[in-house]
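FORM 7B - TANDEM STRUCTURE REPORT

SECTION 1: FIRST PROTEIN
SEQUENCE AND TOKENS:
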Amino acid sequence: MGRSALASVDDLAARVRSTAAAVESGRRFLLGLAGPPAAGKSTLAAELGSALNRLDEGLAGVAPMDGFHRTNQDLGTAGQLGIKGQPQTFDLAGFTGALSELRSAAPGVRVGWPIYDREIHDPVPDGVVFHRQAIVVVEGNYLLLDKPGWKDVRGFLDECWYLAADQELIEQRLYGRHLAGGKTPAEARARIANSDLPNAALVARTARRADLVLTPRGDRYLVREVR
């Protein structure tokens, strides 16, 4: 492992902007933000995007991997609805194709990106449309997964960070999320035990492929260089 230091979101945004300025002109800079479910990836991605846009309005956007969940109808037909959230329940070909388009398209070229609607529990096409954003934060559980097909994802990302989180906190957040989504307490606990925690363990093993590992420390992050 490399060096470590404490950093604020503004510090992290400044790092991203500096790193992005060094890439070849004519394409977007893609920063990956990986980590287990309920680690806080969406929150950090949004905060990073806001911090970058304070530096330069319209500079950054967020592209969630969750938009590439396969539909409930598709998963139900395949008998996979009960394991929704595991790697095989995502449209991997669609995700890598969208990453390729987003990376290669110059800022100013419109690129649509699906989002996941937690009310209907299905993806919505073109929920986000990127235009002049030159930096995009791509957040999702499996960005660093070293398995056939998934390992290609890392090649589309200029840099990828891993957001660590305490398992007890993850379980608390997931329980609240499942209850809010309409599950009973028993269903929520079963989903956490049978799907979410195995997913978290799988994702935790991918941290070694990250450039940085971030661990929350109050309103800052302990940032550790991996390579």
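SECTION 2: SECOND PROTEIN
SEQUENCE AND TOKENS:
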Amino acid sequence: MKRRVLLKGVAAGSAMLALPALAQSDRRLVLGQSAAFTGPAAQLGIQMNRGARVFFDAFNAAGGANGHTVELKTLDDGYEPDRCKANTDRFIKEDVFALFGYVGTPTSLAALPLVNESKMPFFGPFTGAEALREPFSKSIFHVRASYYDETALIVKNLTQLSLNKIAVFYQNDAYGKAGLEGVTRALKPLNLAPVALGTVERNTVAVSQAVKDIVAKLPDAVVLISAYKSCAAFIREARKAGYGGTFYNVSFVGTQALADELGKEGRGIMISQVMPFPFSTTTPISREYLEAVAKAGGDATPNYSSMEGYLAAKVFAEGLKRAGRAPSRDALIAGLESIQNANFGGFNVHFGAKDHVASSFVDVSMLTEDGKVRR
């Protein structure tokens, strides 16, 4: 009798050990985020993460979704693809519930084969690259508009002002090339092409050659496709070289980080945006976000990158609510796909069974000499 009881106890213990992490009794769902938290692109990861945490902390305090709370676990990849791939492999082996808020095109692309192989939900990456949207992947969900959307608006704004001589300064990797392709595509129907190109290597500020290559062609405007430190370095050096034209950045630059880098030199720098304006209460989502940031206190401050993290977390949470009382990864995907024509405080979100790009919203902002951002 005792032997039978002992064997039953061992079997039960073995079954408990074999249970996946998702079935833990504390009903906590762990999300994995690989992003730059150190290095020249650190503010992109830090701010995206802070915004998401502001939402998830309040979400958990209110009881979560159907009794399930969310833990956001982070690993630093320094904005380097190999490190991101290793982080993703670790998250998958640890059996996290989903991947959330990755930052960057080259890093996200390095994770892509692992994501597709594991069928792990990959939600809200901070990138607008088409290579993560086409071909369609059942696992990947985008909250933001694409770089094609952003560069199309930039080219439209410039050419409507007869600023047709457009140069492109871009990061020499998948992110920069995605932005360059967007500008080229937008110019082609107008029988135009970039008048000059200049590159910078990821995580560096070696921009001197790019400045020479671009300024010599006297463009009306330069579209910059890189992160904040290299873009700030290019703008400074181009101005020192006598360039007096217009600068346009895409949203991934990190708007507040760029403003902080440039200070007074930021006056007049234009940036396309894919999130609602985060500095005033003009929309319900902005009001909600600003109230949440103020309540969170600490090092949380309003900015576009943080707003993106907050809004991505909010949309993810809605999908989780729709996943039911026993959420699985498949149920989460189904829940997210059921979010159709939904209004998140003035930010429209639409997913579907074959449409995992929530928004095509693009706006434009401008830096001021006092380090602020205005529309």
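SECTION 3: OBSERVATIONS ON SECOND PROTEIN
Residues 30 and 195 are 48 Å apart (CA to CA).
Residues 11-144+282-360 form a domain with the Rossmann fold fold (CATH 3.40.50.2300).

SECTION 4: SIGNATURE
Preparer initials: ____
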